[in-house]
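Why does this matter for the project? Reviewers at the last site visit asked to see concrete outputs rather than summary tables. In response, this paragraph embeds two records directly. Each consists of the residue sequence and, immediately after it, the corresponding structure tokens. Nothing has been edited or filtered.
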Amino acid sequence: MKIIIIDDEARARKSIADIIKFSQHNLKVVAEADGVKTGIEAIRKHKPDLILLDIDMPDGTGFDLLKAMDYIYFKIIFITAYEEFAVRAFDFSAIDYILKPADPKKLLEAINKAQQIVEQENINLKLNALFANLDNINPDSKKLVLKTAEKIYLINTRDIIRCESDMGYTKFFMVDGKNVLVSKNLKDYDVMLDGLGFFRIHQSHLINLKYIDYYDKTEGGSVKMKDKSILPLSRRKKDSFLKLINMM
């Protein structure tokens, strides 16, 4: 795997290059670059399989570099200082990233994951989702990339009625009647969708509050959704849930 490291910090580039050099994997750093312009030149010259891309650089951002490319055929792992908003955007868009300073184990895990992808997934779809999420501060317009065994879906969070745990997987129920099953557990999406109008009413159920039909107080309490599903409300979540719906 041919790798290019694009980062304006020489120390960071050396640290990453050393991790790769001593990893005993079939990896080779074919070039380094310190900015957008030099990064584009290195990509065109060396045609890498993977780029490790910093976000903030003196002559622009890693996003500017990608937007300047005619065609993206290589895999990408972003390198970023911790910013909660940006990190959540990566998670929503299913794009790999590592935080600075680069942890050797996490870096090699991300590279190994990239190596195991036999065919290049639809990176342009993912990047479009990422750019939309970074540009749009409206929580009701976030775009979420969902990967199944056969397809990659790009959905708006406002179109999710509910999510249901299914043996370590998560099933999404959409307003158009579509169901999407992905190989991530419900806890991951509970964290990801926090603050976007979702609430986990039960260990197995995460709901979009705007699609509640009614709350039934009888027999311990249950929640009927607009898709006609009737879901249990756990005792532990009851008080928090009632406070939320009373504020709506």
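We now turn to the second protein, recorded in exactly the same manner.
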Amino acid sequence: MSIIVDVNKYLALNGATKRIKDYLSIEVADHAYLPKTEDIKSDWVAYIAAPAFKLIREKLGHDIDSFVSIGTGSGIDVLTGIELLGAKRVGFTDLQRSVVAAAAQNVRNNLKSNNIEFEFGDGDLLQPLQNGKRNYDVIYENLPNVPLANNTKIEDKRNSGHYLEKREEAIPEFVHEQMLDLHYLALKQARDYLAENGAVYSTLGGRVPLNALIKLGELAGLRSEIFTYSWKVQAEPEDVISGYAAQEKVGLGPFRFYRAEDLQKAFANVSVKDSGSRAFEIEKSLDSVKLTATAAYEAFKKGEVIGHTVAVLKSSVE
């Protein structure tokens, strides 16, 4: 499937692009996550990652040298890292070869110049890059939380919102109960790929308490903080909310969802720059209107618009 992306609109730029083309031609592989380019508030890169990248650049005061995306999908997050962070060397991975091949072509075809260095490969998390340069200033991940249903293969359909649950690595019980398995594993691997003063930025649907996200980083051996905090309408609600509800039935959670109107009120006067420092205050204000996944699914089936909070977790070496 091919899509055209108006970068100025998609990334909310004030002028012409510097490093990538003004209009991206993106080929989305069959098993990759489909960017929500016609509904920006539902799109992870445009609505969550891009504002965080702009804030990273503002706080640093200079371009970064290197950027990597774990589970890139279409590669649009890599192009965003190049444009907003000024990355000169980029790495990206995904589980399936066809997805990575399409992402590589998308990145190459949509640059204004050829002076970007690439490292990419298919496989598990950061492992495809283990024989490369390894050191990255910014590691970005937006990984799935919901395991695939039994007897479903990752190749059967567009399963980018799910993952294969069985792992050889030991995962702390607390992490598994919060459905944060892949994020934990990514943070554990990231220690070996971070440049000096580098950081991992995890975009996490806040369906669990913020304290759980801080603990996630600690259990992975990193120092974590809430970098930005926002909300979005739940994309693919039938699939995702029901998936969380199913996990509640087997004893995990309870998880947190909200009616979109309640989220809109809570975040009405919150800037991206201040959102991280105000995250716990906002979370507390939403406590009385939170819904379990089971309740959220019932509300969704009745026609209500359901959303969730989103935290960008910044994790770095102690």
